[in-house]
Design goal:
7-stranded mixed sheet, alpha+beta
Length: about 775
Amino acid sequence: MPIAAPSHTQVGLCTAQAQIPLEHVDVRADVSGAHARVTFTQRYCNRESTPVEAVYVFPLDEGAAVCGFAAVVDGVRYEGTVKPREEAFAAYDDAMAAGHGGFLLDEERPDVFTASIGNLAPGAEAHIELTYVAELACEDDSIRFTLPTTVSPRYAPKEDRGGVGRPPAELLNPPKLAGVPYGLSFTARVAIPGRIRRIESPSHPISIDFDGDRATVTLAQEHVALDRDLLLLITPTETGAPQVVLERTKSGRVAAAVTFRPQFAAARVPADVVFLVDRSGSMQGSSIEQVRNALQICLRSLEAGCAFNIVGFGSTFESMFNEVRPYDEGSLTEASAYTAQLGASLGGTELLPAIEFVLEQAQRRERMTQLVVMTDGQVTNSDAVIDAVRRRSQHVRVFTFGIGRGASHHLVKGLARAGGGVAEFVYPGERIEPKVVRLFRRALSPALTDVRLDWGEMAATTVPSRVGPVFADEPLRAYGLMRERISGTVTLHASGAAGPMSWSLDVRPDDLVEGSTVGTLAARARIREIEEGGAWSPNRGSRQRERRQDRAVSEIIDLAMEFGLASRETSWVAVHKREVPLTEQATLRRVPIAITSGWGALDRGSASELRMMSAALGFDAAPPAMARHSVAEAGMPSSSWVSALEAPSGILGKVTGRRAQTVKDDSTPKVGSTRTLDRLVALQRADGSWDLTSELVDVLGLPFNVVLEPLAHASGDPDEAKRALATALALAFLVKKASSSASEWKLLAAKATRWLAGVKAVPAGGRTWAELAVGLSI
């Protein structure tokens, strides 16, 4: 149930630094292969003269399974227990009413949690420790560890701004400051199979201490702001091999984690591709620039026979074409110019109507639509959006790009799961091209069907029950829960264009260890599947599908209680019983969080613009770390402040309107930067070829007269010969001068090579165009 201020609590707001009770956040992570165990410690201190109740809304990894919770008050540790959500709140509220200390952890969304620290006595200090385990994503040869640190402002549609209790608009939009007085310290111990080749962070400066096959990673600065996700990319010397991990849980079950790397031929086929682009105000700045860059690369990765469309959304949505249009030189040119002028100028983030429009069109097409969603994911109605895709998943495959420093992982990953696709995240400073290549390698390959795991005589329950998607040479992970037989073979079955396929792994009792990571992750995966499967609903107002709903709730609670997990139906609670209870009423302190760096281009605004934004957010701009008023006190209901900010007539529109107009007026196609590779890619035609122009020759760094000379003796169509030589020269350049970026251009090169293979014009002297190009470019 939503946290509401108890009747005995006086609602107060932070009016000075001493009234922000959260003083520091410390995170310690153990990364082991594809999993991480993280301890997240929040230090609170009451420097006021009366008791306080601190409420802190903060993010966690979307796949985090919160399996531990404790409070340490003045050196004494109080362990938490998992209870059904309403029971946990009742225990917390009763403790406060009796003058004791209460500590509560609620999951608002899979990536947003609320910690409540009740009746913290004057001068007292409390350390809140929560532990979670998480499955880590793989990006090509690297493991990606993500630590979210801020909840970006989330747009709330009308239905999320009212209702009984605190609506989602308030639950998911805590008070914001330009800066907060508390900071972050971080340590990660890394131990993965094989040696570590490289560890890097695109988000923060880090220090690395290697000790043989292990490494310890810390932040280069002692304390840093919690205003952006912390990312680690860990690259081993060898890519992960297929494997099985077996653990026996405390309840006696055996949990298995299996990782397959299917090897099979994946031919590319034409497809209908729709790009759904977030153009809301929060995308202003680097986020919309990354989207324009991604779209330009995506357009040039399409194949002959494809059809495509671009749909932008904000407070409303607009479609470039009425329907998907065949991919050719004309549509590419038009789309490239259209993409170059895209701005974050459409106001709020009304994603649901836009995605329903795309889904309705997809239902009318003969072939499945490949939907590519590009967004920062900052909405409160993520459940409804994910459910809309789930209900029509037979018509679409959904691939998502999470853009920016604080993208909602729950929405971005949830959409991909519901649509049988894959999610990618693009952090400022990361090259987007390799991610586009990976996406189109998947989107333009026929999906394997009839995917299932067969555990043989082990009779395990597969988690999640829907396995997939299965892509060539990419890891696929799943879990199995069993009680008795734990030896045999687990087989992944699927059907492809060439017929049935299968891959097997042996499960051996000798590999069994005592542990809690695998079972906890399996239980979390099953809970997530229930939450996103349609039977469970967060809306308690309707009693439709009552029996299915009750059964889903019961299964979530049973799993959460068995494995000790926070969920949408269960919470962690701990109680500090005092010998002498407090008699004074506690004052509520909602801990403000730092606004996400770069949100709505705030880091690019002038001082006056930032003061305008500060006023709209409800705090003084000088000093930025201190809030004088909450959003509500500033005269704007907290349930609608994000909506008002993103409205075209709101502060974001006023602050960034000039910048958006500047982008809109620039019709010159760009591919992100001025790199030679980007300039070359921008010149490629829809069919994969290049025209022999002075601009191309300049990019290649060749004298025009030298290039033209061999064409005088070529046979066949002169225009085709020019394009053949230009294409061969471009390919030679990619191989010789851009080999380190091969992951970015290999799809474009493959398209060019296929076009070149069909050319009838031939150069003189019995040479091929490729041989001639190599000779000219030496």
